[in-house]
Specification:
Structural class: alpha/beta
Largest sheet: 5 strands, mixed
Order of helices and strands: EEEHHEHEHEEEHHHHHEHEHH
Helix content: 40-55%
Strand order of the largest sheet: 3-2-1-4-5
Strand content: 15-25%
Bound molecules: 5'-O-[(R)-(carboxyoxy)(hydroxy)phosphoryl]adenosine, zinc ion
Number of helices: 12
CATH architecture of the largest domain: 2-Layer Sandwich
Distance between the termini: 30 Å
Radius of gyration: 21 Å
Number of strands: 10
Length: 342
């Protein structure tokens, strides 16, 4: 099967061609970073209007670089949830138009499930059950995964997503947008000086939820000099004009965020006896998080599946790849498929 995938759930306009074995024949991602950077975050209306302009050239480029004619496609896959509704509709309408014109099946795909699939996409025989973390700008969730199509949510963030926290902390520190890569870069230059930031691990629910708003607020208060007397005696004062101080805060935040994500991933693994662990989504591109997960997995002799960075962030290859499993399972859809923000 040759499947075209289309992904427009947020600010990346992406199309990819994947064959039945999961081999990626093309993977085109057109980023809108420059459009949204002046606003410090994704502006939904700007995103959907930009998708309208780029979706057809991006699809054409994906077909061209894969050396596949539209008629040779066996199915059209598209992200239909969750995401920004206007952005999702652009991709969904393009996919429906192609499916109708070419007489090919349409396969709607859940974006978060696809982030999990991206972790195991290149693995010969992934081990299940798998403890999988999806950490992106809009989502922070933990799943027990029994196959690419069997995901059971076991934990989620109660407030900010991890990527959102990276983006907001970067904004507080004046590091620019998108925040994840900016924090990672700034932290690389950090010396030994560290700020003692909290590692929130909410105890309610199943004990596997996350909370990032307190950590973000802790950074905000530190940057404003609002620390407890006790802390002030043991911590350096934050100086926003001093690049070393900014780097130290970026590194301290990155460590705290990576710590809680890694802790929860392995707590979940232990809870249901996972045979492997995985992490996908934009934040899973973070080197410190990858290193922490790899170290802990090695200590426990658990296999770890981390997608290459280009497949951790938003892309359409993961959409086409997961669609192959959905189609092979026998599920069929008509053109009444709708888009959903949640
Ligand atoms: O999965 P993704 O590309 O889009 C969504 O589905 O949201 O994730 C984007 C998020 C952004 O918040 C971005 O700051 C974060 O992933 N991110 C990173 C890194 N690269 C991207 N966070 C930490 N370290 C990185 N290297
Ligand atoms: Zn995503």
């Amino acid at each position: 099967m040759i499947i075209l995938g289309i992904e427009t759930s947020c600010d990346e306009c992406a199309a990819a061609v994947v064959d039945g074995g999961g081999t990626i024949l093309s993977n085109v991602v057109s980023s809108q970073i420059e459009l949204h950077a002046p606003y410090g975050g994704v502006v939904p209306e700007v995103a959907s209007r930009s998708h309208m302009e780029t979706i057809h050239p991006v699809i054409a480029e994906a077909l061209r670089t894969a050396h596949i004619a539209a008629n040779d496609l066996d199915a059209i896959a598209v992200t239909h949830r969750p995401g920004l509704i206007g952005s999702l509709l652009v991709g969904l309408c393009a996919a429906k138009g192609l499916a109708l014109a070419l007489g090919k099946p349409l396969v709607p795909v859940n974006h978060v499930d696809a982030h999990v699939y991206a972790c195991v996409a290149g693995i010969d025989e992934p081990l299940y059950p798998l403890s999988a973390l999806v950490v992106s700008g809009g989502h922070t969730s933990l799943f027990r995964v029994d196959s690419p199509l069997e995901l059971e949510p076991v934990g989620r963030t109660l407030d900010d997503a991890a990527g959102e926290a990276f983006d907001k902390v970067a904004a507080i520190l004046g590091l620019g947008y998108p925040g994840g890569p900016a924090i990672e870069k700034a932290a690389r230059g950090a010396g030994n000086e560290r700020f003692a930031l909290p590692r929130p691990l909410p105890t309610g629910g199943g004990g596997l939820d996350f909370s990032f708003s307190g950590l973000k607020t802790a950074v905000l208060y530190r940057t404003r000099g609002m620390t407890s007397k006790k802390r002030r005696t043991v911590e350096p004062a934050f100086d926003g004009d001093d690049p070393e101080s900014v780097a130290a805060m970026a590194a301290s935040f990155q460590e705290a965020a990576a710590d809680v994500l890694t802790t929860r991933l392995f707590q979940a693994a232990q809870k249901f006896g996972a045979r492997a662990v995985a992490a996908g989504g934009g934040v899973a591109a973070n080197s410190l998080l990858r290193q922490q997960i790899e170290e802990k997995a090695a200590a426990l002799s658990l296999p770890v599946y981390l997608p290459p960075r280009a497949l951790a962030t938003d892309n359409a290859a993961m959409i086409a790849g997961l669609a192959g499993h959905i189609y092979a399972s026998g599920r069929r859809f008509d053109l009444s498929v709708d888009a959903f923000a949640g």
